[in-house]
Design brief:
The complex is a heterodimer of chains A (465) and B (267). Chain A is mainly β and 465 residues long. Chain A has four helices and 32 strands. Classes of the chains: A mainly beta (465), B alpha+beta (267). β2 of chain A pairs parallel with β5 of chain B.
Chain lengths: 465, 267
């Protein structure tokens, strides 16, 4: 099964690489008569295929030799390199292959040295940074190494307060600018956050709080201090509020934390168990699972928890709803109406129910931001002694064709898509024990897996932007 | 009599044992056949990894639609394209040096004779007039940009006005941006629905890219004669949400792009 899936996955790249990309272009400056409608004409053609962009990241030039600048420069260089290396669209040049020296300005840049072997880069990012007054001033440039006559693609200047954290944030912002320019117009994710559940303590004293971190695992810090069991954090599309379910006096209830106010905000408590909230892409509604009518069903309320309406009515548990982020008109959820939990999709008014999986044990769906795929955790052969385990799968919503992304690494659960549809973050426990669960990230085709946190982190949720 | 009896008894016991043994054999055989047949009937067509409607076959368009570059194809037979590490080369067995026998006569080695040296240098050949090298009559490609003809012209009372073309225009100045357009459209073109029998040539699609990278005015400028090619090419462009924002250094409001699709070569 494993080798077969791999083989199938290779076929598109083989077919694409066999056909040579034909490019022809011509340009006309049509300024005639109407300068207000200045425009250029471009003739472009292709058969098929696209190559990943090879990019070099030169070490930035320090504008001063003091210790502070050196420390910021080290943070900045490492962050920028890691951002571009993990973006998934670049073939990054190893630092050992690059020409010596660190150019700090366009006049010091010799792109030919980067375009030639062994660097063979198509693009080179470089610049300078230093502490001026009490500000960290960064000049970043992106040059097209293959275009000697007009190499400049991007020039940015950042002036931020001189802290190690702002050096990292500036590197993220510069990386996002590069990814936006070279990644086909999809904004980068270097400035996005991941919200997750931190398991503190063990046994009877266990508490689970909501924490957040940068997308690369840096800057991990707590958000809630409830001293309770809080599960499944979901951030609102505008990054202003955080919905999660928390165990209190009235059982599990949906609770909302305002990231702008820095405190809990009101969300009405109702009977039964209320878990797995999900924001609609316009931020006006929250869908969640509620057992106020004794059977867990999907309910939708407005963002304040009012005007709740039930949209499922079959016997059997319904939970883990997630909106289609592209349209907001569909919900994927997990239902146990036919026995073991399976993945279903329906319209937000409860019509048009489709069963997506027809076997095994499916949990935790996450709809991709472009609306095309649903990632979910699935134990395809569920039962005692059955082969395989719970792994992350991706299904194309229109065709129900799926592919397996993780293999033989223990129990994987809670996938969550990055805003650019290129990455998936998930929780993995090698031995199935919750205290050994760590948060991992991977590209959406299963490559380049790496852990973001230590043990005791679960249920990641990638912010919308 | 006793002997006869004994013989008869033993033969009867033998035949009883034989029939019991045969019955047991038949029963076991039947159970085994039942098990095998049941397993075959229940599991036929459900093998893991079969290309059934529910098993793990994946369509080529799926990975294509995730905006990631293609992965390099691997080939287990090709040591340069496989992910498995190459096996270490076999260490050569140490050579044994033959010990010469004590009474062996050494073979005389021939010493090379010294090369003959001419006592005079060879005179240089007389100088002839060399024929002039004529440049082949072919188009200059690669060395310099070709001659660009004016692409748009306007009729007025005085005659025809052609818009002059500067070679340092968009395609040259922002080549990286044109490459981005090329790659993005190419990655969205699904050739699975192309009519293999049709004889199309090349379809031209035109569209505008605004400053923020959004597309508009998508239309077929010149049909190819193959409707499937036209439609897949059109939907490839229509699939795209946005391109990167136009380069900061570009001053215009939008660019007009003409994009052509060649049908893939017939196998």
């Amino acid at each position: 099964m494993q080798s077969k899936t791999r083989k199938f996955r290779q076929s598109p790249s083989t077919s694409r690489s066999t056909v040579i990309l034909v490019l022809a272009l011509a340009a006309v400056l049509a300024l005639l008569g109407a300068p207000a409608y200045a425009q250029d004409n471009v003739l472009v053609g292709t058969n098929q295929g696209a190559a990943s962009v090879r990019i070099a990241v030169a070490d930035f030039k320090p504008l001063a030799a003091d210790e502070q600048t050196t420390s910021f420069k080290r943070t900045f260089d490492a962050t920028l390199y890691a951002d571009l290396a993990t973006a998934g669209i670049f073939d990054i040049v190893s630092k050992s292959l690059m020409p010596p020296g660190s150019p700090g300005a366009p006049s010091e840049m010799q792109v030919q040295g980067y375009a030639n072997a062994p660097a063979s880069a198509s693009f080179v990012a470089f610049g300078s940074l230093g502490v001026v007054g009490d500000k960290l001033v960064t000049n970043g440039f992106l040059f097209d190494a293959k275009n000697v006559q007009y190499p400049q693609v991007l020039a940015k200047q950042y002036s931020e307060e001189a802290t190690d954290d702002s050096a990292r944030q500036v590197a993220h912002r510069f990386a996002d600018e590069i990814i936006l320019r070279l990644g086909g117009g999809t904004p980068g994710i270097a400035e996005t956050k991941i919200y997750y559940v931190k398991v503190i303590g063990s046994g009877a004293n266990i508490t689970k709080e909501i924490w957040m971190m940068d997308y690369d695992g840096a800057n991990q810090h707590a958000i809630t201090h409830l001293g309770a069991i809080s599960l499944s954090p979901r951030v609102s599309p505008d990054n202003s509020r955080l919905a999660f379910s928390s165990l209190g006096r009235n059982g599990f209830q949906i609770r909302v934390y305002s990231l702008l106010l820095g405190r809990m905000v009101n969300f009405p408590e109702v009977g039964g168990t209320n878990i797995t909230p999900a924001w609609s892409p316009d931020g006006r509604e929250i869908a969640y699972s509620s057992s106020r009518t004794s059977d867990p069903e999907i309910w939708i309320s407005d963002a304040g928890g009012n005007l709740a309406r039930r949209i499922t009515s079959f016997r059997g548990p319904d939970m883990s709803p997630v909106y289609n982020p592209r349209t907001g008109a569909q919900i994927a959820w997990i239902s146990g109406r036919t026995g073991l939990p399976q993945l279903y999709i329906m319209n937000t008014d409860g019509s048009g129910v489709q069963q997506m999986t027809d076997g095994g044990y499916a949990t935790s769906p996450s709809w991709s931001p472009n609306g095309q795929f649903i990632a979910f955790a699935w134990d395809r052969k569920y039962g005692p002694g059955a082969p395989g385990g719970q792994d992350i799968y991706v299904m194309e919503a229109a065709t129900k064709k799926w592919t397996q992304l993780t293999f033989d690494s223990g129990r994987c659960d809670f996938p969550s898509w990055s805003p650019d549809t290129r990455h998936i973050v998930y929780a993995n426990s090698p031995d199935g024990k919750p205290e050994h669960t760590r948060i991992w990230t991977m590209l959406a085709d299963g490559r380049e897996r790496r852990a973001l946190t230590g043990p005791g982190a679960d249920m990641p949720n990638w912010s919308w932007k | 009599m006793t002997t006869l009896n004994t013989t008869r008894n033993s033969s009867a016991a033998n035949s009883q044992l034989g029939s019991g043994f045969a019955g047991s054999l038949a029963l076991h055989g039947a159970v085994a056949a039942l098990l095998l047949g049941w397993a075959y009937l229940v599991h036929s067509g459900q093998n893991w990894g079969d290309a059934t409607s529910t098993a793990g076959a994946i369509q080529a368009t799926m990975v294509n639609a995730i905006p990631l570059p293609p992965r390099q194809p691997t080939d287990p037979d090709n040591v340069l394209a496989t992910e498995a590490p190459s096996p270490a080369p076999i260490a050569p067995a140490p050579k044994t040096v033959e010990v010469p026998k004590p009474d062996a006569v050494p073979v005389p080695t021939l010493t090379a004779r010294p090369a003959k040296v001419a006592d005079r240098n060879t005179p240089a050949p007389p100088l002839h007039p060399q024929p002039e090298k004529i440049d082949p009559n072919k188009a200059q490609t690669g060395e310099a940009s070709g001659i660009r003809l004016a692409m748009s012209s306007t009729q007025n009372r005085a005659g025809t006005i052609s818009v002059s073309t500067t070679d340092g225009a968009f395609g040259t100045r922002f080549k990286y941006y044109v490459d981005q357009i090329t790659q993005k459209v190419a990655s969205q073109w699904y050739t699975g629905m192309l009519d293999q029998q049709a004889s199309g040539h090349r379809v031209y699609i035109t569209f505008q890219v605004e400053r923020d990278g959004s597309l508009s005015h998508i239309q077929i400028a010149q049909r190819s004669g193959d409707n499937t090619l036209d439609q897949t090419a059109l939907s490839a462009v229509q699939h795209i949400d946005t391109f990167p924002p136009l380069p900061d250094a570009y001053t215009g409001t939008h660019i007009n792009v003409m994009y052509y699709f060649d049908p893939p070569p017939r196998p």
